[in-house]
Amino acid sequence: MKKYTGEEIRELFAYADSEGFAVPMFNYSDLWDLKAIVAAAEELRAPVMVGVDPPVFEDIGYEMCAAMVDVATKEASVPIIHHLDHSSCVKQCKEAIDLGVFSVMMDASHKPIDENIADVRAVTDYAREKGAYVEAEIGRIRGESSYETSYTGDDYLFILDEAVKLVREAKPDALAIGIGNAHGFYVGKPELNFDKLKEANDALDVFLVLHGGTGIPREDIRRAIKGGINKVNVGTAVYTAYMNGVRDKLMADGENQFTLEVMPVGVERCKQAVMEWIKTCMADGKA
């Protein structure tokens, strides 16, 4: 399968919107879980995005990440789109685009709205020249991670006037919105604000993204998709299934195991988790 350009990514999301499913994005951390994501997509004939977080991008190396996903994309028979997730750096987004990562997220949601707009606009201007696709974020998506901090109270909910201004002035292709969703495992039951989602869907001419998929009940994910969500991000469910599989194999068989005997167990666990999420997003059979 060829690499998708920004225009072709927009066409894929328009197709998802018209057909009532969401494109799932799964974060990878190495070659093994990347293989699991691609295998799940192939088996279920689903288009997927594979997302790299900035710490992984930096630790493995920009060129190495780009190269291994390029190989996976070339050999796949379904659309596999490489996505730089949650970058807070304009320069990093541009470098990723130059390496052929044609979908990038410029996340300046932690900044005042005018600075958020300026950063996103700098990336979208560059992306248009290079044929890439850009996601931004409005509101604050809660949760502990290496790239965001915890938020409390109602400040994580996006403000509609700010979202309208960002879309109008920065012109991103997609917008991740804070509607009560959170990264990582939820403490208590997730409480998505579907009224805020309706606000966004009614007012914004942009593809909408839900981050923090792990832990949200399937019925709420599907309700969000029906309400206008076009992309669902899943990270924690992927890496925990992967690493727990590896741990279980190591614990069962003891020390001095060979890599090729251990990793396939993690890959299979990861693949099964990814397949469940593809079905949740109703993306199976849509490639």
Concise account of the structure shown:
This protein is of the alpha/beta class and 287 residues long. The protein has eleven helices and eight strands.
Structure description:
This protein has 287 residues and is of the alpha/beta class. It is built from eleven helices and eight strands. The protein has an eight-stranded parallel β-barrel with strand order 1-2-3-4-5-6-7-8, surrounded by eleven helices. Helix 9 links the parallel strand 7 and strand 8. The longest helix has 22 residues. About 4% of the residues have low confidence.
Question: What keywords describe this structure?
Answer:
alpha/beta, 51% helix, 8-stranded parallel beta barrel, 8 strands
Could you say which structural class the secondary elements and strand pairing correspond to?
Answer: alpha/beta
Helix amount, in percent? 40-55%
Q: Are there runs of 5+ residues with pLDDT below 50, and where?
A: 143-153
Cα gyration radius (Å): 18 Å
Element string (H = helix, E = strand):
HEHEHHEHEHEHEHEHEHH
Number of strands: 8
Mean pLDDT: 92
| Percentage of residues in DSSP E strands | 5-15%
How would you name the oligomeric state of the polypeptide chains in this document? Answer: single chain
Query: Rough shape?
Result: globular
Largest sheet: 8 strands, parallel, barrel
Biggest sheet, strands in spatial order?
1-2-3-4-5-6-7-8
Cα separation of the termini: 11 Å
- Number of distinct helices: 11
Which secondary structure elements does this structure contain, and how are they paired or packed?
Blueprint: H1 6-19, E1 23-27, H2 31-44, E2 48-52, H3 54-60, H4 62-75, E3 80-87, H5 90-98, E4 103-106, H6 113-130, E5 133-138, H7 160-170, E6 174-177, H8 194-203, E7 207-210, H9 218-226, E8 229-234, H10 236-253, H11 259-280
